[in-house]
């Protein structure tokens, strides 16, 4: 299951980042998005979603959301 399948307001644990793009993986890591971290979909927006990771909220597009396995 990836982040696009997540329900709003429910906390999930990140299982893996599924991508061959090292730059994308490094970007997600810099946001605090890595295996074992909790993540919550705050809301859905056109072309992606808003997520809460640690103490921050980020708007991510569908490609990033697809790469995050929960």
TrEMBL record:
UniProt entry tagged with the keyword Iron: yes
A Pfam family (short name) is FeoA
Instruction: Extract the InterPro entries matched here.
Output: Fe-transptr_FeoA-like, FeoA_core_dom, Transcriptional_repressor_C
Q: Which residues form the signal peptide?
A: none
Q: What is the source species? A: Ruminococcus turbiniformis
- Domain of life, per lineage: Bacteria
Protein name, entry field: Ferrous iron transport protein A
Q: Which UniProt keywords apply?
A: Iron
Ferrous iron transporter FeoA-like domain span: 1-70
Q: Which SUPFAM superfamilies match?
A: C-terminal domain of transcriptional repressors
């Amino acid at each position: 299951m990836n982040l696009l399948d997540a329900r709003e307001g429910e906390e999930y644990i990140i299982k893996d980042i599924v991508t061959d793009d090292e730059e994308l993986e490094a970007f997600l890591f810099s946001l605090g998005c890595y295996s074992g971290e909790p993540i919550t979909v705050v809301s859905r927006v056109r072309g992606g979603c808003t997520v809460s990771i640690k103490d921050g909220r980020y708007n991510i597009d569908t490609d990033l959301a697809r790469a995050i396995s929960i």
